[in-house]
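User:
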Amino acid sequence: MLRAWGWCLTGLLGIVFSVACGQAASSLPEESQWGQAKQYVAEGKAREAKAVLEDLAKRYPKEADLHLLLAIASLRLREAQAAELYVRQALAIAPNHAEARTLLGWIDLEIRRDYDAAVQEYTRVVELKPEFAEAYNNLGVALKKKGDLEKAMVNFNRALELRAGYGEARSNRGWVYVEQKRWREAREDFEQALKSDPQDEGALYGLSQVLKEARDYAGAAQALRSLMARSPNFVYWLEWGRLQLVRYYWALLLVTAALIAHAQYKKRVRRQAHGG
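Assistant: Predicted structure:
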């Protein structure tokens, strides 16, 4: 599944409001600009947020949370190099900042495509936050992209042990089942994920692939139509078109055979009419 920048960053915004890395007491939270900057980021006003944060950074150069928020604002502006610089500054100040390591892992995974580095960062987050289902889910995604399906499965299972209703982890595990051609388990995971979140594009697309494999072309087409209604992704339209060709293959074949037979019949009639 392809990921859009905006879609990925939506999940990262949770970092902004959950940062609590155990640093010494600071007066930063009392700054009205700090609250304003977080509000700007939440509203998608990244440029305004970055301007406020850069001003704050001059007075609070040792605040890891501030550098982390600068990284997120930079990603919103598609400034990947600046984002990586800011998040590394945050980690230089607070090496055990789990949220900053999560963001660095995401940059490694989605932007740099350095899966080994992403696995390393997410493994460290698991060590820092062993009770967080999200940490295991992130590590599972990195391992799957690296091609280590068995370890990915272990981490998705652990995420679901910690939070049974975690739809994203269930959908991700479903894709591992697809890779392993375990279609029944994949279908169960995608259907359960969609009960948690009917808008889950990954689960819907996965379900369409499983249904296609089961030759339920009508069901697969329905899942793809649901995706096409909410996303301009050309991949969905292409898949839907292929399904229509498969669904009506035999009808097209019969029509073609009938046309050929009719043409041959007319040809024989003309020959007979001319004494052939």
